[in-house]
Amino acid sequence: MSEDLITRLSDEADLCRNETATDIANLLDEARNKILEQLGIADLLRRELSLLQEKFCDREHDLSDRLLKNDEPPAKPQQLTI
């Protein structure tokens, strides 16, 4: 959906530019660029979330192992860093 919208915005901007409606063309280009920027931010956030989930699962697994072995849990929980 986003790719289709981005393509349509770009095509419309080109048509407007060909008809000397550069103000509308510039607005369409700006909208297209903003969408691409937001998609990039969303992708970055998805990757960060995935890394945090992996760290959480590792930590949860470690604590489960300790409980099963009757080991003492760590004195202070480790803080996850982003």
Report on this structure.
This protein has 82 residues and is mainly α. It has one domain (2-68). Helices cover 78% and strands 0% of the residues. The chain has two helices and no strands. It has helices spanning 2-18, 22-68. Helix 1 runs antiparallel to helix 2 (22-68). The longest helix has 47 residues, at 22-68. It is rod-shaped. It starts with a helix and ends in a 14-residue tail after the last helix. The mean pLDDT is 83.
Main beta sheet: none
What is the H/E string? HH
How many β-strands, per DSSP?
Answer: 0
| Assembly level | single chain
| Share in β-strands | under 5%
Q: Overall mean pLDDT score?
A: 83
Helix content: over 70%
Question: How large is the count of helical segments?
Answer: 2
Q: What does the radius of gyration come to? A: 24 Å
Would you identify the regions where 5 or more consecutive residues have pLDDT less than 50?
Answer: none
- Structural class, from helix and strand content? mainly alpha
Distance between the termini: 31 Å
Shape: rod-shaped
Number of domains: 1
Question: Can you tag this structure with a few keywords?
Answer:
mainly alpha, 82 residues
Write the layout of secondary structure elements.
Blueprint lengths: L1 H17 L3 H47 L14
Helix pairs in contact: 1-2
Please provide a brief summary of the model.
This protein has helices spanning 2-18, 22-68.
